[in-house]
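Board notes (copied after class):
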Amino acid sequence: MCGRYATTRGSGELSAVFESADDTGGELGPDHNVAPTDRVPLVRLSPEQQRILSVGRWGFLPHWARSAAGAARMINARAETVATSRAYAGAFARRRCLVPADGWYEWVRTPGGRQAYYMTPRDASVLAFAGIWSVWGSADGERLTFSVLTTAALGELAEVHDRMPLLLPRERWASWLAPADDPAALLVPPPSEWLAGLEVRPVGPAVGDVRNDGPQLTARVPLARAVDLAEPTLF
């Protein structure tokens, strides 16, 4: 799964990296501890098929959802079933997006407690998670929502968790966003040599509390100092 991640770049940098127009209205700020239902950047195509950088809320809401109460349970969509899921299939076919991130967190149970890890590129480049988006309308107005696709973890990442975000190398960004006759063909994991560029970094327990933020959350710590007995809180 992917239940917590970091995205710290401003709209100017992200617009340049993803070659997109900025539609964020200055809302973006650095967030080292993104949790479900938070507002964060995503890149999608406009009706004119131009890339736009938008602000969406993490937690997919299909248009037929009666309320926003279930959004936090729909932060991830499984790549194996996204094409056939009643909730996700329409968005997967027509509304795919890129979710910019610096890295993501997972926890491993150890004899001493739970150990947090941060997965991030060794070269500090921007990651793009594969995502799908939806516009949900309710009494309080329309809401742009999204889900991150997950797939089976590979290589060293499988030692931390059996799932990982579906990561898209730069050369796959355009095809993920573009209309496709067979979108299921886009669900291939990145090559192993690309995944080798990710660092699996032990970090401290402070990330387990969603009230905490700041670059100290992603700092490497010795394993002996990193173990926490508390469960991470998602909301």
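Comment from the instructor: The chain has a mean pLDDT of 94. Residues 11-17 form the longest helix (7 residues).
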